[in-house]
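SUBJECT: A protein chain and its fold
Encoding: whole-number codes for local backbone shapes
Chain under study, with its fold:
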Amino acid sequence: MSKDIKDLKESYDFFSEKYEDTKTEISNINAKIKGMSAANSTDSTQEIDNIQQYQRRNNLIITGVPEEDNEDIFQRLFSIAQALQVDLLACEIDAAHRLGRKNISGRPRGIVVKLVNRWKKEQFVNANQAFGKMKKRTLLTSDIGYSGPQTKIYLDDHLTPEMDSSAKKCRDLKHNEEIEVTYVRDCKILVKKKKLTLQPISALNKNTKTSLRSLI
């Protein structure tokens, strides 16, 4: 009887040890699965953002244009094109509208413009840069026929929220003199450290600063 109890206890101890080993192994496997899921989720999010940004490659965001009731957005675009000396036809505009709901404060909403091709968008970008170099200033509301107080008008690439956040982080790095140059061109964020060439980066996550330092 005593031997049976001893054998039973040894069996219990053996299976208890195996159970703990198995439980630990399962826990490790679950941890690996979670890590793989997180990595896959990050990759999927990045891929989706890249697709969304590609779909915006022909788009411009125009800010600073006064907003009026029953306005003709196309006419606003023709006025901007004329000020920048860009030939623009109605058939070259795929879509154009104000962004979001009208602000109670009266601040004009930005205008998103989808042009029929990237070449036409780049015409606007290049003309806007040439205007700034020639006039030594940015485009103003007075340049497109508005009287009264002058406000600045900006033309930018239409970035996804993720890319826009990354661009802001890069500007913060430039402000802190951690990089020399950063700007957006053709929906790509370009950065440069002193004595190095410009390098493009994709939309970055919350570790933007760390990722950038590894690049530059």
User: Anything to note?
Assistant: Strands lie at 59-63, 93-98, 111-115, 139-140, 152-157, 181-185, 188-192, 199-201. The longest strand covers residues 93-98.
